[in-house]
Fold this protein.
Amino acid sequence: MQSKGILTLGWPTVTVARNFAGGLWVTQSALSFPIIRTAGLDGMLVTFADALSEPSNRATLAFSEAVKASAWPGVQEVSTSLASVFLRFDSAALCHAALKDLLLALLEKQDWQQAALPSGRRLWRVPTVFGTELAPQLAEAADAAGMSEAQAIESLGRARVRVLTIGFAPGQPYLGPLGAEWNLPRQTELTPQVPTGALVLAISQFVLFATTAPTGWRHVGQTGFRGFQLGAADPIALRPGDEMIFTPVSRSDYDRFCLEDSHFGGASREEIPT
Amino acid sequence: MSALKVLRIGPLASIQDQGRPGQLQQGVSRGGAADLLALAEGAALLRQDVHLAALEMAGIGGLFEATSPMRIALTGAPMQASLDGENLAWNASHQMQAGQKLEIGAARKGVYGYLHLGGGIDSAVQLGARAVHLMSGLGSPVAVGDLLPCGADPGREVGLGLQAEDRFQGGALRIVAGFQSDLFDAEVRVRFADTAFRRGGRANRMGVEMVSDGAGFAAAGQLNILSEIILPGDVQMTGDGKPFVLLREAQTTGGYPRIGTVLPCDLSKVAQAQAGVDLQFTWVTLEEGLAIQAKHDALVKALPTTCKPLLRDPALMQDLLSYQLVGGAISAQADPFDTGDIT
């Protein structure tokens, strides 16, 4: 294992690069990952890739857990995006260079792209109506992926996807990765509004809307799942690393599930064994 | 319980506090007051905790009636204010008696004015804060007929004023490079700092548009960037290379590239810029930025010591004839230049 680190801070952004034997860190970019960069005055970002992949998201989730477990004094917040771990810290208690050293040492401990996922993850099975007037863009998405609607439902309904990150709005998961056939571009025009529980698709990912909002992603499924429910014991039920399956159901079953379970629309939840 | 009744209110008034730091992993935006300095000033004037909630008024205030005696303070964008018709000093604390009516008009400069209550506004805490965040479904705008409940107020002191930092007319914004800055060519980053910007027409608590003459500020590979965490102060370039300065209420992640991050201490200046106000960006190194921010934090911490008893301005005293003007009621020692224009 070989590594070179340059610990200059500020502009220009200086990257810390390392190469693992065997070429595990294959990227399309000029940058060598992982890289540590500053974020604002009081943030540090550890990025594992500039494109989404299962290994880069795995590295992100595992490294985030390791950072939290380290409990370094001065670190105020640890959060993940699709392929990065963000730390907010009190620079009076922990200076940038010292934090960078800690992160470098932790990065060297193992190949994070092959790390075990954190424990305590759950598998959610969510009853979903694909297509119909509830999710009017299934046909369009199927067509773009070169499938019939039935094939699309079969493909999407079987996919077991991971909560890659939660972001944009409270409790709203980005899920994936889906197969390359679902690498559809975002629409150029925004859909003015999709309802809470809408399952939308673009760039080999789902988003399960936790609020009503405009979107450039295609609305392919509808669930009764509310990712953010104020007043509930656990207002934001999903955690990064959880997995989800969107089980196709009929409209009448969907209506019944929503009536019986206004929070999760009949979704079941089980622990994923570690 | 003591409360302030809302008889009339501007369209975008909302209860705000320090927001919800620390919940990015759940997708919860930090939010909170658009002008955090104004929150600190109000807390200093009422000698109370800076985490208490206040009413944020966007551009225009409203009409309020006290249901019982209460202390108030007015900070942020200076607005015309009067209590039962008598003018009130801005950047100051005052006493309201039960039944008295407080009228707050339009901002004379700046955007966000703040009405603080002794004991803070004791509205419901949601996800750890009282700050309203409409996009997240947390709370709703203040409406006519609402009662703004006061928290317990152990304080008594009123009639204090302070000299507020003028962050209401634009100016220089200090900016540090961040993790996406090198997506922009060096030439673009230099030109960015050489450009005279004006605040554009599109602005809210999430972000503020900057407009300029000449070419935009596009990044390489603008449309193929993986969505990444957003920090308050990030300057995001939209598809046509137009900068938006993102504020604390911005969404937690975004796919537009960010050229850098405005220092937290300059964000009040961004939020308080009215449309058309001149602004420009100045690159500072991380070390410089940390030093500037530390100095600002120290000034904020010292705000309580800068609050001084108000000198009443005879021009504002409508009941002048009822005052005893020659009997030593006015301190001979008070230095008018010390307290200055606190409106």
Helices of chain B lie at 36-45, 186-194, 267-271, 286-301, 303-306, 336-339. Chain B touches chain A at residues 21-28, 126-127, 135-138, 176-179, 181-182, 226-229, 231-234, 251-254, 261, 263-264, 283, 285-287, 289-290, 293-294 (CB under 8 Å). Residues 181 and 259 of chain B are 4 Å apart (CA to CA). Chain B has six helices and 22 strands.
